[in-house]
Design brief:
Elements lengths: L1 H41 L2 H18 L7 H7 L5 H34 L5 H7 L6 H13 L3 H24 L5 H10 L1 H10 L13 H32 L2 H13 L1 H20 L5 H38 L7 H9 L4 H13 L3 H22 L4 H28 L10
């Protein structure tokens, strides 16, 4: 009876985490809707293209910071090693983020040359300032996730989202163009510092320490590789369209992506973000581990399928009303891209499953294969325009991701005992 109650409590915690993260995302979407409507009226496709270039460059660099896998190691670490790993992770974060600040600034000129547009140089450098703030709260954020207190993470997301959207609208109304998007992201990042430090007592020691750095790096490198490939795929269509079809076409595609798939992906990320610590906490109990995974798949289906299908079917009605007639040409692209979200949560769930049992290298191998297929498909499709790029995105996801999800699930769950899940 006690074990049953404990399971119910943990399961309820998972649902509460999804609720908190989902609530934060709802706040984000409500405020972001107002921002998107405002920007769609004040900015033209060329402005959107410039924003896409700046944010795409920043997204690639971000992979090497908070998404580098160092935080994931803190979540997964054994309790006896936690203190050492936290201090080492803190030091590694400062080195990594400092290097990425320099590299992004250095990359600004080549990016400008690639797109033949010098207007993006300074915004790319300004965006890099965020990296110098991340190490201050990264360890605390990971520890909060480890403790399944995603209410704090949700509070950070919601607070920053509200501030970003209010500032973006204000700056856009003042005619700041792409700077209306860049400046708010930088000046609201300290929200994470304040909230995380207020809600977790961990503080670094005064000396730099690299004990167990090999263990941290060994675990993180596969996750880093996967995150980098994910980020490449998430932005590859932007890069190809911007390079071969121009900034104007990129602006239309970028609008369609964010007005469509952006909503679904935020919901998906909310659920998979909550799943990883949920699975890690059950690795010592095979039955509970499996129950948690299959339960999460049911949750994914119940939430994502209705959301995606509803949004896709209503796009022809709400886009001209909410965003204006000038974006009507983006509707077919929006619908196709939005449908590509259907298999994504199950593939993300399978990735979390592999990571939780120290099989992240398999996840990396799969992502290398999928990224190769995805790249070839986009390069072929771009010859016929942005709509067919969207079709290529849809078809590669519908055909490849279900196969990976099924195989990875069977591989882990049929070999749970032999994989020696750590207690």
């Amino acid at each position: 009876m006690l074990i049953k109650k404990l399971r119910q409590k943990v399961s309820s915690q998972y649902l509460r985490n999804i609720g908190w993260m989902g609530g934060a995302e709802l706040v984000n979407r409500v405020f972001r809707l107002g921002t998107t409507v405002t920007l769609s009226q004040l900015l033209n496709p060329y402005d959107y293209g410039l924003i896409a270039i700046v944010l795409t460059t920043n997204e690639f660099a971000t992979v090497f910071t908070l998404r580098a896998g160092i935080g994931s190691k803190i979540v997964q670490a054994a309790e006896k090693d936690l203190k050492i790993i936290c201090q080492t992770s803190y030091c590694l974060n400062w080195i990594l983020c400092g290097v990425m600040f320099i590299l992004q600034c250095l990359a600004a000129l080549p990016v400008a040359l690639f797109y033949s547009n010098n207007q993006v140089i300074l915004p790319i450098c300004v965006m890099a300032l965020v990296y110098l703030m991340l190490p201050i709260f990264a360890v605390q954020s990971a520890l909060i996730q480890r403790e399944n207190r995603l209410k704090i993470t949700a509070l950070c997301n919601a607070t920053q989202s509200i501030l970003i959207n209010i500032l973006t609208i204000a700056l856009a109304l003042l005619g700041m163009g792409m700077w209306a998007v860049v400046i708010p992201i930088v000046i609201t990042t300290p929200v994470w510092i304040v909230i995380n430090l207020m809600n977790h007592p961990w503080r670094p020691t005064m000396s730099f320490s690299f004990n167990k750095w090999q263990e941290v790096v060994s675990y993180a490198r596969n996750i880093l590789g996967v995150e980098l490939l994910n980020k490449l795929r998430a932005n590859l269509d932007y890069l190809i369209i911007g390079r071969f079809l121009g900034v104007q076409a990129l602006g239309i595609y970028y609008f369609a992506f964010n007005a469509g798939l952006g909503i679904s992906m935020n919901v998906i990320n909310t659920m998979t973000w909550s799943l990883y610590p949920h699975l890690c906490a059950a690795r010592g109990n095979v039955k509970q581990f499996q129950e948690r995974y299959f339960s999460s798949l049911k949750t994914f289906a119940l939430i994502v399928f209705p959301l995606v299908l509803l949004q896709s079917s209503l796009a022809p009605f709400y886009v001209p009303i909410v965003f204006g007639q000038k974006w009507v040409t983006a509707i077919p692209i929006l619908i196709v891209i939005c449908l590509s979200a259907l298999p994504r949560p199950f593939a993300d769930g399978a990735s979390m499953l592999l990571n939780s049992v120290d099989k992240s290298h398999i996840n990396l191998y799969w992502n290398l294969i999928f990224t190769t297929i995805f790249t070839i498909s986009l390069l072929v499709a771009v010859k016929w325009g942005i709509f067919w790029v969207a079709v290529a995105v849809l078809m590669t996801h519908l055909l490849a991701l279900p196969l990976y999800s099924i195989w990875a699930s069977k591989y882990v769950l049929s070999r749970t005992q032999s994989l020696s899940i750590a207690k």
